[in-house]
């Protein structure tokens, strides 16, 4: 896809794609898992234009401010493409406050059915916009860190940056 742009950040290199209106449609970690199935899904939407320098700069600025602990929310425009259920899950992810986590079951319960935790996990894994749609804030029911497209070390780093690591994740004295 010609419209994928590599952005160097203090979190590491990321790859982003924007739609014709400048909304972010993809954000992922460049040095971990290049999410080809997700990118193929986005490619079916039509050509992804080369991103405009202003949009790339704004995204980079906000990611840097977040990494420096100076930003808790993002206001870059997003356009998320997914099923109605995925859209509900991604909206739920965006309601998890900075510095907090939810288990898959808690998020499923917030969406109306605590028995949908596996479906929530699948939708979480299909999130096309890492960090901005904070799928890293979803953890296992036991408080353990579970899968993340950027890798568990990055998930731990993001949660630590937000002050969201609990004593269950790190026993007293291990910080």
Automatic annotation (TrEMBL):
<keyword id="KW-0963">Cytoplasm</keyword>
<dbReference type="InterPro" id="IPR036217">
    <property type="entry name" value="MethylDNA_cys_MeTrfase_DNAb"/>
</dbReference>
<dbReference type="InterPro" id="IPR023546">
    <property type="entry name" value="MGMT"/>
</dbReference>
<feature type="active site" description="Nucleophile; methyl group acceptor">
    <location>
        <position position="135"/>
    </location>
</feature>
<dbReference type="Pfam" id="PF01035">
    <property type="entry name" value="DNA_binding_1"/>
</dbReference>
<keyword id="KW-0234">DNA repair</keyword>
<dbReference type="GO" id="GO:0006307">
    <property type="term" value="P:DNA alkylation repair"/>
</dbReference>
<dbReference type="InterPro" id="IPR014048">
    <property type="entry name" value="MethylDNA_cys_MeTrfase_DNA-bd"/>
</dbReference>
<dbReference type="InterPro" id="IPR001497">
    <property type="entry name" value="MethylDNA_cys_MeTrfase_AS"/>
</dbReference>
<dbReference type="InterPro" id="IPR036631">
    <property type="entry name" value="MGMT_N_sf"/>
</dbReference>
<dbReference type="GO" id="GO:0003908">
    <property type="term" value="F:methylated-DNA-[protein]-cysteine S-methyltransferase activity"/>
</dbReference>
<protein>
    <recommendedName>
        <fullName>Methylated-DNA--protein-cysteine methyltransferase</fullName>
        <ecNumber>2.1.1.63</ecNumber>
    </recommendedName>
</protein>
<dbReference type="GO" id="GO:0032259">
    <property type="term" value="P:methylation"/>
</dbReference>
<dbReference type="InterPro" id="IPR036388">
    <property type="entry name" value="WH-like_DNA-bd_sf"/>
</dbReference>
<keyword id="KW-0808">Transferase</keyword>
<comment type="similarity">
    <text>Belongs to the MGMT family.</text>
</comment>
<feature type="domain" description="Methylated-DNA-[protein]-cysteine S-methyltransferase DNA binding">
    <location>
        <begin position="84"/>
        <end position="164"/>
    </location>
</feature>
<dbReference type="GO" id="GO:0005737">
    <property type="term" value="C:cytoplasm"/>
</dbReference>
<comment type="function">
    <text>Involved in the cellular defense against the biological effects of O6-methylguanine (O6-MeG) and O4-methylthymine (O4-MeT) in DNA. Repairs the methylated nucleobase in DNA by stoichiometrically transferring the methyl group to a cysteine residue in the enzyme. This is a suicide reaction: the enzyme is irreversibly inactivated.</text>
</comment>
<keyword id="KW-0227">DNA damage</keyword>
<keyword id="KW-0489">Methyltransferase</keyword>
């Amino acid at each position: 896809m010609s419209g994928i742009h590599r952005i160097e950040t203090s979190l590491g290199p990321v790859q982003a794609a924007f739609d014709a209106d400048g909304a972010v449609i993809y954000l992922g970690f460049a040095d971990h898992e290049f999410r080809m199935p997700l990118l193929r899904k986005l490619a079916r939407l039509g050509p992804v234009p080369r991103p405009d320098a202003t949009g790339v700069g704004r995204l980079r600025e906000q990611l840097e401010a977040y990494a420096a602990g100076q930003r808790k929310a993002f206001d870059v425009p997003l356009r998320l493409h997914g099923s109605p259920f995925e859209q509900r899950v991604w909206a739920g992810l965006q309601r998890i406050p900075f510095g907090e986590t939810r288990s898959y079951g808690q998020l499923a319960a917030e969406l109306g059915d605590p028995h949908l935790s596996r479906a929530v996990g699948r939708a979480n894994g299909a999130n096309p916009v890492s960090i901005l749609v904070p799928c890293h804030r979803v953890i296992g029911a036991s408080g353990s860190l579970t899968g993340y497209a950027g890798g568990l070390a990055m998930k731990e780093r993001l949660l630590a940056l937000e002050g969201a690591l609990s004593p269950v994740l790190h026993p007293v004295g291990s910080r």
